[in-house]
């Protein structure tokens, strides 16, 4: 083989893929575009650049150095956006703490990540007071405060965020360094055991940003993200960098709106007042917003919305489409940075009826550029793209985590055979659209046949009077397992267990679902347990009801 390696001229610039280069683009091309917080604070990208430099100076003056870990406990805010850039740009690691974890889990993640400094919103001071005496590595605290007066606390803060920025220089010479330097760490919200630390480098975050931007900007039909859009996340910034979308929005230089704590009234008000056109959230948030009384008086048409984190039912999709929302599915996981696929419709698909479109919009979608996605059997043999042959989704892409922090065995399991194992069971059609049929741990085996809990949930959600549904497997002496549908009824619907069973049987009689579903039991409940990021917690549901 000939050696075609390109020889680099000694004086040539060795360009590294660093997060700072995401920020510098809009400062040049859209310096007067707005960053908005809760509709009460707004400033330009030019000021964002100055504030990022000020934060870098403030942190380094406190003693933060390359390789240190800076943790943040905050709601979705302009401050969080500034930390997304300033912390990794000085060579430190940003730890985005999941504030919805229990105090003991939060303490575990702080110690496991070996956090050096902690920036904390005053709302979370009771949690911090509870665990502060048991932290092993934290050297200093910075207060994040939206209130006019300082809170009463025993925490020895190094200073308040805005005061520290006000005293800092607006100039900082951000260095070049190896693009493989770790930039972020956060902890996956596992349903068993302690959370696992996931980490990403500058190179991975830049490549993910460019990959997502490329596919969102290239579609001519639905879900296009462009410079005239107004972006607002409705996925926590502590969860996989808000799906990486703040980096994408910043690279584009679009107007960004940060809502703080998720309050339905405020979210809807910001969509209307700030003319938000692009967001992302889990299905439970969309359901909450559409059912809120204020939603009926707001024009939601033209709002583009990626749904992820859990399966979107066709009923919810049709409800959103009925309000003019361009809703579609995205797929990924904490370990994948996260976006792997998006369910963009072709122009021909957009000509279909709403019911036919909803089927496609609810699919997992097609893989992004640079994502090598396969559906395989237990021996890693690729399954045919026939829409009926199930297997596990395994992936390779340049932005996947290299493993779990300080957990070699779990990392080896994650990457068994040289592919990242998602644990999701899916089929793929001839057009390349993937459709997840279940999590491998949630598939129900009835009389030796696999029954998809997600498929059953989608069918039951179409039944009149169903507000929410989750399906789990329960042990059965005769059949091995039987599906149990846990259903929240709409008030005064009059829905009965027999109504749901008849509805499901109609699908089985038409051959649209495995005939074993007729063995399903139904139980009405008041609350369906969720994880800290809004996913249905089937581990807890099985403990309660199986």
Helix proportion range:
25-40%
**Which residue ranges are poorly predicted, with pLDDT under 50 across at least 5 consecutive positions?**
none
Mean pLDDT: 93
Q: What characterizes the major β-sheet?
A: 7 strands, mixed
Terminus-to-terminus distance:
61 Å
Tally of individual helices: 18
CATH topology of one domain: Rossmann fold
The CATH homologous superfamily of one domain: ANL, N-terminal domain
State the strand order across the main sheet.
7-6-5-3-4-8-9
Describe the model:
By secondary structure, this protein is α/β, with parallel strands linked by helices. Among the domains are: 20-200, Rossmann fold; 444-545, 2-Layer Sandwich (GMP Synthetase, Chain A, domain 3). Helix content is 31%, strand content 23%. The chain has 18 helices and 25 strands. It has a seven-stranded mixed β-sheet, with helices on both faces. The protein has a five-stranded mixed β-sheet with strand order 12-13-14-15-16. Strands 2-1-11-10 form a four-stranded mixed β-sheet. Helix 1 (20-29) packs parallel to helix 9, helix 2 crosses helix 3 (78-89) and helix 7 crosses helix 9. The longest helix has 18 residues, at 45-62. The chain is globular and about 70 Å long. The mean pLDDT is 93.
Task: For this entry, give a set of tags.
single chain; alpha/beta; GMP Synthetase, Chain A, domain 3; seven-stranded mixed β-sheet; 18 helices; 25 strands; globular
């Amino acid at each position: 083989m000939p050696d075609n390696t390109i020889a680099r001229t000694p004086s040539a610039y060795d360009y590294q893929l660093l997060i700072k280069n995401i920020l510098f683009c809009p400062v040049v091309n859209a310096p007067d575009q707005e960053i908005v917080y809760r509709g009460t604070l707004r400033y330009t990208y030019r000021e964002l650049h100055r504030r990022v430099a000020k934060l870098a100076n403030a942190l380094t003056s406190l003693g933060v150095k390359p390789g240190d870990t800076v943790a943040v406990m905050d709601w979705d805010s302009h401050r969080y956006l500034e930390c997304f850039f300033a912390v990794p740009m000085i060579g430190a690691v940003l730890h985005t703490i999941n504030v919805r974890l229990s105090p003991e889990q939060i303490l575990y993640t702080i110690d496991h990540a070996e956090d050096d400094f902690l920036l904390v919103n005053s709302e979370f001071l009771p949690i911090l007071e509870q665990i502060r005496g048991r932290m092993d590595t934290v050297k200093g605290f910075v207060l994040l405060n939206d209130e006019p007066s300082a809170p009463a606390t025993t925490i020895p803060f190094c200073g308040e965020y805005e005061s520290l920025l006000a005293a800092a220089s607006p100039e900082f010479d951000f260095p070049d360094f190896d693009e493989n330097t770790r930039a972020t760490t956060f902890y996956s919200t596992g349903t068993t055991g302690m959370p696992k630390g996931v980490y990403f480098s500058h190179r991975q975050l830049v490549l993910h940003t460019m990959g997502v931007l490329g596919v969102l900007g290239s579609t001519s039909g639905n879900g296009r993200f462009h410079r005239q859009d107004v972006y607002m996340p409705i996925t926590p910034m502590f969860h996989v960098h808000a799906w990486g979308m703040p980096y994408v929005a910043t690279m584009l230089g679009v107007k960004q709106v940060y809502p703080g704590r998720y309050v339905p009234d405020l979210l809807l008000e910001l969509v209307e007042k700030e003319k938000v056109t692009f967001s992302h959230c889990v299905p439970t948030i969309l359901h909450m917003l559409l059912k809120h009384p204020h939603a009926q008086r707001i024009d939601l048409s033209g709002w583009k919305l990626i749904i992820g984190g859990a399966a979107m039912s066709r009923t919810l999709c049709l409800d959103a489409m009925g309000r003019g929302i361009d809703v579609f599915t995205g797929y990924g996981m904490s370990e994948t940075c996260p976006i792997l696929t998006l369910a963009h419709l072709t122009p021909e698909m957009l000509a279909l009826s709403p019911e036919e479109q909803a089927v496609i919009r609810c699919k997992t979608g097609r893989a992004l550029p640079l994502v090598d996605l396969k559906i395989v059997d237990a021996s890693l043999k690729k399954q045919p793209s026939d829409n009926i042959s199930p297997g596990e989704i395994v992936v390779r892409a340049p932005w996947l985590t290299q493993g779990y922090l300080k957990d070699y065995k779990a990392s080896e399991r994650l990457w068994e055979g040289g592919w990242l194992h998602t644990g999701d069971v899916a089929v793929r059609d001839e057009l390349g659209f993937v459709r997840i049929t279940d999590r491998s741990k949630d598939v129900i085996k009835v009389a030796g046949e696999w029954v998809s809990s997600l498929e059953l949930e989608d069918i039951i959600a179409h039944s009149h009077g169903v507000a929410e549904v989750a399906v789990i497997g329960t042990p059965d002496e005769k059949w091995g397992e039987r599906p149990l549908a846990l259903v929240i009824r709409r008030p005064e619907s009059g829905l009965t267990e027999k109504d749901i069973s008849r509805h499901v049987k109609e699908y089985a009689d038409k051959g649209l679902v495995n005939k074993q579903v007729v063995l399903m039991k139904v139980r009405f409940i008041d609350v369906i347990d969720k994880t800290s990021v809004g996913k249905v917690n089937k581990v807890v549901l099985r403990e309660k009801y199986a």
